[in-house]
Amino acid sequence: MRGSVGYRSTLVAGRASEANRIAKVLEGGNIKLWSVVTDILGESSRNHREGWMKADPTFG
What we know:
Low-confidence stretches: none
Helix content: 55-70%
Largest sheet: none
Number of domains: 1
Mean pLDDT: 82
Number of helices: 2
Shape: elongated
Order of helices and strands: HH
């Protein structure tokens, strides 16, 4: 039981670290995604990032 709790904690910390890394890279390009979405790894955020990467003019 303790092993699985420790493993879950490691996974949660890794996910938070990845979200912060993505936010830092985007902010380096003057994109403040945290002000638009609450979950930077969520579906809405992913759609925005994909739209920007495709240079789609319909995305903010």
